Amino acid sequence: MSIDYTERIPNNVDLAGDRRLQRALESWQPRFLQWWGEMGPALPTQDVYLRTAVDVGRAGWAHFDRVRLPDYRWGIFLAERDPDRRIAFGQHQGEPVWQQVPGEHRASLQRLIVVQGDTEPASVEQQRRLGLTAPSLYDLRNLFQVNVEEGRHLWAMVYLLHAYFGRSGRDEAEALLLRNSGSEDSPRILGAFNEETPDWLSFFMFTYFTDRDGKYQLGTLKESAFDPLSRTCEFMLKEEAHHMFVGTTGVDRVVERTAQLMREHDTDDIARHGGIPLPVIQKYLNFHYSVSLDLFGGETSTNVANYYSSGLKGRWQEERRGDDHVLTSAVTTIERPGGERIVSVELPALTALNHDLRTAYIGDCETGVTRWNRILDSHGITGHRLALPHVGFNRKVGAFAGCHVTPGGRVVDAATWAAGRPAWLPAPADKAHVESLMRPVYEPGKIAAWLAPPRSGINGQPLDYEYVRF
Ligand code: BYC
Questions:
Q1: How far apart are CA 106 and CA 431, in angstroms?
Q2: Angle, nearest 10°, between helix axes 211-221 and 227-265?
Q3: What's the mean pLDDT in 94-121?
Q4: What value does the mean pLDDT take over residues 172-190?
Q5: How far apart are CA 330 and CA 308, in angstroms?
Q6: How far apart are CA 81 and CA 200, in angstroms?
Q7: CA 351 – ligand 1 centroid, Å
Q8: Rounded distance from Cα 387 to ligand 1 centre (Å)
Q9: What is the pLDDT of residues 138-175, one digit of tens each?
Q10: Which of 217, 222, 229, 236 best tests ligand 1's pocket when mutated (most atoms within 8 Å of CB)?
Q11: Which of 131, 364, 425, 435 is deepest in the core (most CB within 10 A)?
Q12: Alpha-carbon distance 249 to 207, whole Å?
């Protein structure tokens, strides 16, 4: 079913056919817009060159146009329904997928949807002030594209809460607009979404590492036996691809510019030449990677075992796995601290599914590091390498929480950790330097001196296109 843009809430779920639901969502809509006004982008603009979904099918789903941000057509878009789809894993493997929520899984499914939904507006809140220091109109436009799509992902989860979870779902939808990133009284649910994204290096790292957790979590929810959740995640993943692109190419361009400055001035100390030194890039990487690893939950979790067995949340690329998809007798190996060393232990695969997902995620993160090191190589910089820190580094969740592990993977005491910290995580002086570079560049085609230009414009437009008008 194609998307109906004549409706107050654009959708492809025949909202008009369910008046009660339509009215409930229409009463949530002004509250969303109020939240967007208060917590969304702080920079006033006239319009932005944005893409909007016009069809959820394979071809031609995106339409580009100049849009006033508050007029963006947020709506409800689910991927096409496959009438033959069957549950791919767990106790219900082989049975038809569910079009309604089974009573016994109501609380767990609602919890998963609320946790997912909570991250979407959180990221908009975290990025609220970035427009004030955008390094170019191209980047500013990308920020706003990410923001409106996160807003739409909130709509996706709110639709599920309203349509399938009755009164408690409506209450949760309300609460999604009441919690705020970093709030003392009512913070966002997951740790990384209460951290600040105060500068564009953080934004690129966030869209590389934290949005990538989103990709993997959505990938597991796409496998869900609850078909409406699966279908909405499938479409969200298509939008998510652009967020990955912003992160990957954003860090590419920081590294590229840093390498250029290192060559040009024949020094590693490029801070005084207006660049971001490699050790600072590494520290930001260490921070964003480690807080993103926390988003996978504990290495061992009975929650995830139950989600899997009951069909709520699958594995990354479940159907491509060559095992029994039940995992009752499978085992796996994980690393965890064992006194002063890190030891490997064998565990039931079912309770280690967060670890399984995290392993796929880490493999994906490595590809970024490889490409950034290739950029250094291409500038003849061979003495420096970017690297992912050890999984135990700077962790607050899981087996390594409360244990001090260096980026290289050595377990150390609290004093050694405290002494090493300024070299491993962004120190006040690093943050101050990065902040000092954050000056807005709003002239079409121009770019801040700490960042290399992108390889090409958006949707075939030239780099000096007026992507945002004021
Ligand atoms: N912070 O059994 P455990 C995205 C809680 S990002 C705070 O080890 P479980 C996006 C946990 O809730 C993707 N609390 O974990 C990216 C549990 O509490 P309860 C978001 C945490 O349940 C960028 C307790 O600790 N989507 O889309 O197996 C921009 C024990 O946990 C944290 C999802 O996460 C934490 N980091 O797995 C925009 C998918 N970690 O239940 C968007 C939905 C754990 O005992 N969520 N806890 O009160 C889930 O699948 C799971 O809830 C988690 C945790 C993977 C998060």
A1: 44
A2: 160
A3: 97
A4: 96
A5: 14
A6: 39
A7: 15
A8: 25
A9: 999 999 999 999 999 999 999 999 999 999 999 999 99
A10: 217
A11: 131
A12: 10
